[in-house]
Amino acid sequence: xxxxEIHKLINENVSLxxxxxxxxxxxxxxxxxxxxxxxxxxxxxxTIENGWFATLSPKTxxxxxxxxxxxxMPLAHLTHxxxxxxxxxxxKNYGLAFSRISEAVYKVMMEKNNLKAKxxxxxxxxxxxxxxxxTTWKEKKEHLHIKIFRLEVISDNxxxxxxxx
Length: 165
Description:
Radius of gyration: 17 Å
Shape: globular
Strand order of the largest sheet: 1-2-3-5-4
CATH architecture: 2-Layer Sandwich
CATH class: Alpha Beta
Helix content: 25-40%
Number of strands: 5
């Protein structure tokens, strides 16, 4: 019984869905914006077996002129982290996308705010948070997305574009 349920989860249909905002956004090109104003800032791969994209959202948990939220999503309609394991190139590109976006965030934060690689105080240190979730609860089951955001102030979101290219 348990093996059958895991098999169902791992082998779910991951095709793009017309009713999913993230699936629709995955068709956009870098520098295009979504209906709610998020900008596509990064893409790697070009199929549901290998592709990821990232958006810079206009919505943040703090001051939108200082904070940022980046969402990293697969092109495929994955709903669980465990499904990534079924696609070797997707897993590889996740690592590349996540590390490149993280490096760009650190570059921007360090350069714009004179922050240090090792700081004796939080005033010159970098605080990044990563948030991702998945569930098998039907009502809350959605396209996998990972949020990357700063816990402190960042002075200019637009510079992130330059660091990624």
